[in-house]
Amino acid sequence: MFSPTESVYICHARAKGRLAAVLLGVVLLFFTALVVTLPAWAAGEDRIAVIYPDIGEPYRGIFEKIIDGIEDQAGTPVAKYPVQYDTDIGALKSSLYRQNTKVVIALGRQGMKTAAALDRNIWFVVGGVLTVPESEARMQPVISLSPDPALLFARLKVLMPTAKRVFVVYDPGSNGWLMKLAKEAARAQGLELVAHEAHDLRSAVRLYQEIFSVADNRRDALWLPQDSITVDERSILPLVLQASWNQGIAVFSSNSSHVRRGVLFSLYPDNMALGKSLAGLAQGILTSGDYGWRGMMPLRDVQSTINLRTAKHLGLNPGRQQGFDTTFPEQ
Amino acid sequence: MNRRTIARLTAAALAVAWSAGAHAAPQSEEEELALAYGDKSFISIASGTRQPIARAPSVATVVTTEDIAAIGAADLDEVLETVPGMHVARTASGYNPIYVMRGIYTQYNPQMLMLVNGIPITSVFVGDRSRVWGGMPVENIARIEVIRGPGSALYGADAFSGVINIITKTAADLDGTKIGLRAGSFNSRDAWVLHGGEWSGFDVAAYLRVGATDGQRRTISRDAATALGTSLAPGPVNLGRDAIDGRIDLARDQWRLRAGYQQRDNVGTAAGAAQALDPKGSNSSKRFSTDLTYQDANFGRDLDVTAQTSYFYLNDRSNLVLYPPGTNFGTGAFTDGVIGNPYKWEHHLRFNLSALYSGLQNHKLHFGTGVQENHLYRIQETKNYTQPVGAPIPLGALVDVTDSAPFLRPHSRNVSHAYVQDEWAFAQDWYLTAGVRRDLYSDFGGTTNPRLALVWETAYNLTSKLLYGRAFRPPSFVELYNINNPVGLGNPNLKPESIESMELAFAWQPASTVQTSLNLFRYQMKDILRFVQNPDNSFTAQNAGRQHGQGIEVELAWEARTNLRLSGNYAQQRSIDETTNQDAGNAPQHHIYARADWRFMPSWTLNTQLNYIAGRKREPTDTRPAIADYRTVDLTLRNQKRSGDWDFAFTVRNLFNADAREPSPAPGLIPNDLPLAPREYRFELSHQL
User: Which residue from B12, B297, B459 is facing A205, i.e. has the nearest CB?
Assistant: First the structure.
């Protein structure tokens, strides 16, 4: 039989035992979480990091979405480094080495510049840029933000099955690489791509004049690439829109905000899917230990937007089954 | 291509040739991203939920969650004041919002239909949103659609002067968990949490907010009790309240289940239920709503089907000191004041089925049907007075009159409806939308309301619309069934009041960075429901008024620079009461709203807005001079996600401390009107987890 003192003691002992069990449980839980969440770190595995521009909204949100896609594909959180033009490269390198980083996914122009300044023994892939000079692009894989012409042309053929010819006015400095792909893509869709080079606004205007003087609204369409010279927003675009409206010529664009202005349709990046693609490239490099493929590739992870007002004007009937992600006008 | 276009293209080339050098410069990060992602407004659309395809052509305004954040709004009414043609006035009792649209001003404001996710939140009691409103927070609002003018052909009852549809956030609008805090003047404080994610195959969005305020305390100098010698004026308005708001949204495949809860406690009486200051009185309300919606955009070939059942519960409780202690109308002294404590409970059950069929060449058919029951199922009232025709007489103590002589007895109403609408593309760029809706009410019978809209896509940057619509506002239960209140007796033989409207609207984009619109409207109201004086000096609800009006609304938005946006609107209206041929009163004849959004540094934005209210004449029966014009200026400084995932905002409302006032009811028992808040500061901090 226990005395009251003993029973108090036993109660304390039981309480201490419960406390110890709880503490043990917490410690076990902590280490389990550590092992589950940081397997690469614990095992000293090669890791992926993301370098992206430290800019404000709404573009920051875009990069965050791409990073969500990267982490989704990687199956684990990745180290993230927002960078600016004056980021300390030395400190960044030290941190990447500590993390055992072997591949960097560089997002945006600033992300790419920073990654290029790192040591050659850290591989990197690039996303979130429109185009890079060929000399830089051949060093590593770059997924451009320019939608794949093949996807644009396929969408055009669905909306306008009678289309036979696509005109485009482009600056070879920024879109030369894309036109090579576009010619092949057009052929695959049974389209003829009539591509005109323009190096300045004056020559671009003259070329648009020529296009509208020969264009036939039953078989011709006009493509506006992402090009600040040949598709000047303030001067060229309104007049192209007016001429195309008056003549009933379908115009599609690689710049999605043009759809709100009256362009028939456009494709824009699917950020989550783009992140997955970039992570897939990075994982491939980790596995093979080599870049494999290098150079620019167009964006295939896209969403679509259409201007229903323009579609009606052109006599096109886009069914819901064609699945546009965004429609204009808004109401 | 015509010669004119060639000439313009050539001129453009010459005009812009000088700037070619500038284009050769390397693009900034943002310029490059803008080429791929579009401008900021497109990003906000593309990253949000998919936009609905156009419904009926109408004159509408869409306010996005980005707009709401930019102007530093904490309450729905601060957002709605920015909508062209709309002004938010206040009632004396509770400072409840009066959404004045195009000159249509009434105390209970049943002429404005408010929807949450397309479902009405109208109380059947007086036709407003609730007698104890207590505000609506904005953190969980994805966007607000405001349709100006009659919309009964689609929306049915109360879509009379306009429709406000509040779309709450879904999982697609929320990414993870966000917490927020706001504190500011008048001891106002709010805390909220928002969550969006996936759970067991469901898209889940959840929202919880807890808040409280003491409210602004500007002075009422004289009130209804001043002449009786017992007034508490001069004294402050009483606008304190405690608030809880919750909402959950579960979606899977074609199914969506939503539920919302709003609770308001210790809600102040503002300027008093009887226009006599009442610091002791207090109100509370509970609102619960839920709906189950099935929508299949591909139910059949070219067929989009939506089925929805919804439930709405509303309970208001008021404990009021209508006149201060010591009041004596010559019928005996009220030592504790004139006390009235009305409570009421109502619930609404709805079922709707609608379909959109686009399988016919050049036609888009929209049709639907539905039934609903509105049941004011319980009344409770205690008071210390009785009121035959004339002044209140003391009962000596608080008496429960629920069974003997309540202000209203429980009633219910059943409504069924059917509508059809066709959008017919009868020529290139020409569309005719014709629709009609029939509503059958168990109390007053049926009403049929058509609409016609002729739309001409005049040019690539110009759309012209000619619109006709008719709408109705059914009599409320107070107007039909009120008893034992000689200043407001019900009349079961009422018919709905109606409005017919014609509008001419233009939307023009003169330049890539400029958007404008112009609307001209004219309307005619008939059978207006009013309480009309009887020979024995009591008042009974009657269809007894007509009003007509006309006006214009102009909107302008200009992307002046990549980091500066200027926008604004001007609304002008003139409304005439046909009984007296005088201005219908209280509504502003001129309303100017101007706004500037300046991103002066990455992640830093400064928003300034000016609101100018002018030309408010009195009601014909009110002999007071016109209400003074006012202009208020607000500032909001916001920093988004600069360090970690923290957002910060600082707002000053009524920066110059303007003496802004809203009209008190005729004949002016509160002679100096209802003062709005003085200068007010707010700090807001939110964190994305």
Answer: B12
Residue B449 pairs in a beta bridge with B437
- Furthest CA-CA distance within chain B: 91
Q: Which of chain A's residues have a Cβ under 8 Å away from the Cβ of B149? A: none
Q: What is the ipTM of this complex?
A: 0.77
The pair of structure tokens assigned to B183 is 């504190």
Determine the Cα–Cα distance for residues B595 and B337; give it in Å rounded to an integer.
Answer: 47
Helix A108-116 to helix B29-37 angle (10° resolution) is 130
Q: Cβ separation of B34 and A257 shorter than 8 Å?
A: yes
Of the candidates A255, A299, A83, A316, the one whose C-alpha atom is nearest the C-alpha of residue B33 is A255
Residue B360's Cβ-count burial label (10 Å; 0-12, 13-18, 19+) is exposed
Which residue does chain A place closest to B507, by CA atoms? A329
Number of other residues whose CB lies within 10 A of the CB of residue B306: 18
Sort out which chain B residues have CB atoms less than 8 A from A319's CB and list them: 302, 358
Query: Alpha-carbon distance A67 to A51, whole Å?
Result: 10
pLDDT tens digits along B176-221: 899 999 999 999 999 999 999 999 999 999 999 999 999 999 999 9
Q: What's the rounded Cα separation, in Å, for the pair B557 and A42?
A: 56
| CATH class in words for B48-688 | mainly beta
Which pair of structure tokens corresponds to residue B90?
Answer: 């206040």
Q: How far apart are CA B587 and CA B627, in angstroms?
A: 10
In terms of phi and psi (left: phi > 0; alpha: psi -120 to 50; beta: otherwise), the region of B118 is left
Q: Which residues pair with B149 in a beta bridge?
A: none
Nearest partner of B180 among B215, B145, B138, B150, judged by Cα: B138
Residue B567 near residue B598, CB atoms below 8 Å: no
Question: How many whole angstroms separate alpha carbon B475 and alpha carbon A141?
Answer: 69
How many angstroms away from the CA of B244 is the closest CA of chain A? 30
Across the interface, whether the CB atoms of A325 and B46 are under 8 A apart is answered yes
- Please write the tens of the pLDDT for every residue from B335-356: 999 999 999 999 999 999 999 9
Domains parsed from chain A with CATH numbers: 44-146+271-299 (3.40.50.2300), 147-268+302-328 (3.40.50.2300)
List, in order, residues 6 or more apart from B447 with CB less than 8 Å away: B438, B439, B441, B472, B474, B496, B498
CB contact under 8 A, A268 and B46: yes
Residue whose token pair is 């479902």: B119
Count of residues making up chain A: 331
A260-314 per-position pLDDT tens digit: 889 999 999 999 999 999 999 888 888 887 777 788 899 999 999 999 889 989 9
SS3 track for chain A? CCCHHHHHHHHHHHHHHHHHHHHHHHHHHHHHHHHHHCHHHHHCCCEEEEEEECCCCCHHHHHHHHHHHHHHHHCCCCEEEEECCCCCHHHHHHHHHHCCEEEEEEEHHHHHHHHHCCCCCCEEEEEEECCCCHHHHCCCEEEEEEECHHHHHHHHHHHCCCCCEEEEEECHHHHHHHHHHHHHHHHHCCCEEEEEECCCHHHHHHHHHHHHHHCCCCCEEEEECCCCCCCCCCCHHHHHHHHHHHHCCEEEECCCHHHHHCCCEEEEECHHHHHHHHHHHHHHHHHHCCCCCCEEEEECCEEEEEEHHHHHHCCCCCCHHHCCCEEECCC
Q: Is the peptide bond before B667 cis (omega within 30 degrees of 0)?
A: yes
Pick among B6, B35, B173, B648 to test the A interface (most A CBs inside 10 A) = B35
Query: Beta partners for B307?
Result: B294, B353
- Residue ranges of the domains in chain B? 48-688
Between CA B589 and CA B597, with CA B594 as vertex, the angle to 5 degrees is 165
Distance CA A253, CA A166 (A): 12
Contact B418, B438 (CB under 8 A): yes
